[in-house]
Amino acid sequence: MSTDDIDEAIDWQGNAVDCADCDHQDRLNAERCKPLRACVHDRYARRIDRFFDWNPDLARNYLSHGYFEVRACASKAAEIFLLPAMLDDPEEAVRWSAARRLPNRYILRLRNDPHREVRIRIALRLEGTDLLPMINDEDYAVRQAVAKKLPPDLLVLMINDEDAGVRRVIASRIAQEALMRLTRDHDPVVRLEAAKRLEADDLETLIKDADWRIRYEVAQRADVNFIGALVDDDDPLVRECARDRRKAAGLETSPNVIMTQKRSDQ
Q1: pTM (2 d.p.)
Q2: Predicted pLDDT of residue 253
Q3: In this model, does residue 111 exceed pLDDT 90?
Q4: Are the beta carbons of 67 and 15 closer than 8 angstroms?
């Protein structure tokens, strides 16, 4: 249910909204606000937001309002030169609402914002070396956001991150010359991400990997002359892939396969 479906007009302090006491009667008469639809005094953010969409000239008057949703919505519409001060607002929703409209040079200090959601959004906004102070953020989700944006040649600085999810992102983006280091990661999904990006000639080093998904990647893409050991792999999908590729290339079948074929012919 959207907020517009809620058939009550209550302000942020729990009181009924009364248009008769509103300072914006002229706006109501001019159809620039509407009960249950667009109202700065309503507690529902969508209605507040719509009020400022219809009346952006009033936004500057509400940047210090007691209700954070009003300040956040006003920050979307107020003149941009008023927004740097909003970066010090005690509510994270207001800080981000202001930050999203400001040039990057104004929001660099939010790299240390106390709220993780703000830091995540800041990381996704920033580019290049502006992200470097965030590579050791205490929150893994922030570091994941950094790993998604940091230039591939700088991701080597995060290659030993303690979180496997962060390292998976790194493996999917890091420069090729550093990729082989991630094939030795203790997390199999990290190794798999790296394996998928390796050149076929480099896959031979993973032929004995403990994870079948990585050996399957080897069986699929490595030079067919180097996958003979996989025709007797413990995993049936890996065996089938290796055998099919070698058979298609006209290469010999493993001794175990030959014996199985002889027994089935008898």
Answers
A1: 0.82
A2: 60
A3: yes
A4: no
| Tokens linked to 161 | 């991150």
CB neighbours (10 Å) of residue 261? 10
Alpha carbon distances (Å) from 1 to 46, 98, 226: 12, 28, 59
How high is the pLDDT of residue 258?
40
Residue 139: CB atoms within 10 Å: 15
Report phi then psi at 10, rounded to 5: -120, 140
pLDDT per residue as tens digits for the range 131-145: 999 999 999 999 999
Q: Specify whether the CB–CB gap between 167 and 159 falls below 8 A.
A: yes
Q: Side chain identity at 161, as an amino acid letter?
A: D
Residue with tokens 């950094």: 146
70 closest CA partner among 100, 88, 97: 97
Beta carbons of 241 and 220 less than 8 angstroms apart: yes
Q: Where are the alpha helices (DSSP H) in 78-227?
A: 92-99, 104-107, 116-125, 140-149, 164-173, 176-182, 188-197, 212-221
Using the structure block, give the residue that is written with the tokens 């290469």. 251
Question: What contacts 24+ positions apart, CB below 8 Å, involve 138-146?
Answer: 140/165, 140/166, 141/116, 142/116, 144/169, 145/119, 145/120
- Among left, alpha and beta (phi > 0; psi -120 to 50; other), residue 161 is beta
| pLDDT tens string 202-247 | 999 999 999 999 999 999 999 999 999 999 999 999 999 999 999 9
